[in-house]
Write a structure and sequence with these properties.
The complex is a heterodimer of chains A (352) and B (446). Helices cover 64% and strands 0% of the residues of chain A. Chain A is built from 23 helices and no strands. Chain A is globular. Chain B is 28% helix and 24% strand. Chain B is built from eight helices and 19 strands. In chain B, the strands form five sheets. Chain B has an eight-stranded mixed β-sheet. Classes of the chains: A mainly alpha (352), B alpha+beta (446). At the A-B interface, helix 2, helix 4, helix 6, helix 12 and helix 14 of A face strand 7, strand 8, strand 9 and helix 7 of B.
């Protein structure tokens, strides 16, 4: 019996969570529905981005772009100019919602949001250059409209810009992602500089982006140097992952930190990294993390199991543990488990 | 004249609402439009206490902050009028954003009747008058509180909110960094996971109550709770949630003056009532007032029952310690003031504003005092004071990055000019807490 036929199907739980009281639950449900790419999600996601007045609904636009139903463009178009959320002129919440709508339209082949995106480019706005830079650069297609936006997101425009992009760690991480996708010499020089940023999260992302941009011997050595010198587990995990992705080095340190990192977030990042490497040799660390006390460790573990199982199908030893997570006290853990089962409707019957 | 040298206390309140709100902007997010008036008055409350001839004042106010020159002038004038040692005057504000008159932006000046330059002159005159009114109200409240001194008893306790008020406004993402979630929630980049709130919420309230000897109910109730109290966006002057908390406590207790102080809460916000619904200005005002009142009721529902079960005593010991750094400078630079008062085994402590809530929790956990009432925005000159990991995670509060050194308080602008830059260093917060704890330990003789 497919899980959808149950009154409390995992997929139904994800859809229902779009109207939860907790904003993060709503947004995470949208993110997971986007990953599932099921057409039944389109109507509730469209309702979410249209009716909800929180900025966190940006996750819904991305999910709709992932699903790719072009027929919804007319419904999204008005949200670029009137996003139905408060005007936080002192911050960038409303602008982010408008940008999310415009970027989703562009991904769906609709150019009507392009003037808004170009206006952001003219203003040197970090919301475009940093927050949505990677999404635009990774967007499939080569239409003139897409190129008109993509061509504005250059290393020079980013490095010459002022404001938050190199001061606020959140923006700087996104800047590093954008620079990694650009990958030109100016971008790589900036990423090399960011390897010594005050924030461990920037250093870790800079390592990933630098080697993602092309692993020259200089870049490899710069990232290798982080392993003995950086005082944080987070950077060691990211540097090891970056080197592994570049075909250099094993993932033993990541597995070790998935077991031993003091900070729960670092442990989660290590578990997540095992999933990203696809290295089934460390599956035991991921399975153990399914029972960790921290909710984010558990979520990353479920996600990692999905990735590992995709590479090595047929191993369902962890399914029973994940099934129990459908009743976890933490809503975001329940959602991640629901997504796991919703992605495998004909393999797993998810009775609770 | 009374010969009783035992503990006496008195309270007074004065109005510090600007006289010409229509010429001014308030210091919050409603400052883009012409101010339409006053939703509820702004006040300063002073509590005078005297023991063995020694006088002290605890003063809180409905202001965004107390500017460093104000605190110097207020303490000097209160001292002149009351004979109080200036170091024994503990000042604070509750960081109400719909307060503290500022010069309207050019586009707002242009919306006012008349020429922009004339409006600017009128606004400047109104700001000057508002500043005088603030300082006078502080001084007069202290003078009146002194005049109201009567033999009194005192009690203190702590309580916990039963429903949500202040929540951690920094949301952590899978990248490890944070985005500030105020108003209407966070906005992660495409595909990014939310980890959850980056730190604890705020649910603990410390309460001190003062009553006349033999009285059934307190004449003054002071609370210390950590959260920003602003609701954003209405172009009017208002005491916002602090005003509503005070009104709700006073209406339930009757005959009490409520005093609202803010403990460390740079990363805490009352966004549980958001988002603001769509509509016109009248709709926004209705939402603003209803939200403030809802939160005020939640606050009073936690505070009032705690007061009803208090055991009052007449304090036998009142001691002070004052610390400042940068006060001797004639330039506008970093100023750190910490002012501690111990009443028996209960501490009142003024601190700079915008310390992260983690520092407040650390202070409460390590405090040698039985109860601690923190009062922030005390006239120090500093910006947000994040935790070390907060500075690495980013967000609005940490978006300018850390100071390069613990003592740095200026930076060089692109044009070569030296400008004041009050960024926090990773050690700034812990230094303040260590200093405060050392003061409390000395006061308690430990």
């Amino acid at each position: 019996m497919p899980v959808e036929s149950s009154n409390r199907s995992p997929f139904g739980d994800l859809v229902a969570a779009l109207t939860a009281d907790d904003l993060l639950v709503q947004a995470d449900a949208a993110r997971l529905l986007g990953e599932l790419r099921r057409p039944e999600s389109v109507t509730p996601l469209l309702r979410y981005v249209t009716d909800d007045r929180h900025y966190s609904k940006v996750a819904g636009f991305h999910a709709l772009a992932e699903i790719g139903d072009r027929s919804i463009s007319p419904s999204l178009r008005p949200l670029v100019s009137e996003p139905n959320c408060p005007d936080d002129w002192y911050w960038y919440g409303r602008r982010s919602v408008q940008t999310a709508a415009a970027v989703a339209l562009l991904a769906l082949g609709d150019e009507s949001g392009v003037p808004f995106l170009l206006a952001l480019a003219d203003a040197g706005d970090e919301v475009l250059f940093c927050w949505y830079g990677p999404a635009v650069l990774k967007m499939a297609g080569s239409s003139a409209a897409l190129e008109s936006v993509r061509s504005r997101i250059t290393s020079q425009a980013i490095c010459e810009g002022t404001g938050r992009r190199f001061a606020d760690a959140g923006f700087t991480v996104m800047t590093a992602r954008t620079l990694g996708l650009l990958g030109d010499p100016l971008a790589c020089d900036k990423l090399l500089e960011l390897l010594s940023h005050q924030s461990r999260y920037v250093r870790g992302q800079a390592a990933m982006s630098l080697l993602g941009a092309g692993a020259t011997s200089r870049h490899l050595q710069a990232v290798r140097n982080l392993l003995p010198t950086d005082p944080t587990d987070f950077v060691k995990i990211k540097a090891t992952l970056a080197l592994h992705t570049a075909g250099q080095g094993d993932t033993g340190l990541i597995a070790q930190l998935a077991r031993t990192a003091d900070d729960a977030f670092d442990r989660a990042v290590a578990v997540e990294a095992i999933g990203l490497t696809g290295d089934a040799a460390h599956r035991a660390e991921v399975v153990a993390a399914l029972s960790h006390a921290d909710s984010y460790v558990k979520r990353c573990a479920v996600e990692a199991i999905e990735l590992l199982s995709a590479r090595q199908p047929g191993d369902d030893s962890s399914t029973e543990i994940i099934r129990r997570l459908l009743d976890d006290p933490h809503a975001l853990v329940r959602l991640q488990a629901a997504k796991y089962f919703a992605a495998r409707p004909f393999e797993v019957e998810a009775k609770r | 004249m009374s010969t009783d040298t035992g503990f006496r206390a008195g309270v007074a309140r004065r109005d510090l609402t600007p006289a010409n709100p229509e010429l001014l902007s308030q210091s919050g997010m409603g400052r883009r439009a012409v101010t339409f008036g006053v939703l509820d008055p702004l006040y300063v409350e002073a509590l005078a206490m005297q023991l063995d001839g020694q006088l002290t004042f605890l003063v809180t106010s409905d202001l965004l902050w107390i500017l460093p020159p104000w605190q110097a002038e207020i303490r000097q004038k209160v001292s002149q009028r009351t004979g109080c040692d200036p170091r024994h005057i503990l000042l604070s504000s509750n960081h109400t954003h719909s307060a503290s008159a500022v010069m309207p932006a050019n586009r707002v000046l242009a919306q006012m009747p008349g020429e922009i330059e004339d409006n600017r002159k009128k606004a400047q005159a109104a700001i000057d008058a508002s500043t005088r009114r603030i300082i006078d109200a502080f001084v007069e409240s202290c003078v009146a509180a002194q005049a109201n001194l009567q033999p009194a008893e005192f009690a203190a306790t702590s309580t916990r909110l039963k429903s949500t008020m202040g929540q951690n406004r920094r949301m952590r993402m899978g990248s490890g960094t944070c985005v500030t979630s105020w108003g209407a929630g966070p906005m992660a980049p495409p595909g990014e996971k939310y980890v959850g709130a980056a730190g604890p919420d705020s649910s603990d309230i410390t309460v001190a109550a003062f009553r006349h000897i033999g009285a059934a109910a307190p004449f003054a109730v002071m609370t210390s709770y950590g959260s920003h109290i602003h609701l954003y966006e209405v172009p009017a002057f208002s005491g916002e949630v602090a005003g509503a908390c005070k009104r709700n406590i006073e209406s339930r207790l009757g005959g009490t003056t409520a005093i609202y102080a803010v403990s460390p809460a740079g990363n805490i916000d009352m966004h549980c009532v958001h988002p603001m619904p769509p509509g016109d200005e009248n709709d926004r005002v209705r939402w603003f007032q209803a939200s403030a009142d809802l939160l005020g009721r939640r606050f009073a529902e936690a505070v009032v029952p705690a007061i009803e079960s208090l055991r009052y005593l007449r304090p036998a010991r009142m001691v002070h310690e004052y610390f400042s750094q940068g006060e001797d400078s004639t330039e506008v630079r970093r100023l750190t003031v910490i002012n501690a008062l111990l009443l028996d085994d209960v501490a009142f402590l003024t601190l700079p504003g915008e310390l992260f809530v983690e520092f407040g929790l650390q202070l409460a956990a390590a405090s040698p005092a039985r109860q601690l009432l923190a009062m922030t925005f005390n006239g120090s000159n500093s910006w947000y004071i994040p935790t070390p990991i907060g500075l690495e995670q980013g967000s609005y509060e940490a978006m300018r990055g850390p100071a390069r050194s613990i003592d740095e308080d200026t930076t060089t602008a692109p044009d070569g000019k030296t400008i004041v830059s009050l960024l926090s260093h990773p050690e700034t917060g812990s230094r303040i807490i260590e200093q405060a704890l050392a003061m409390l330990r000395r006061l308690l003789g430990r």
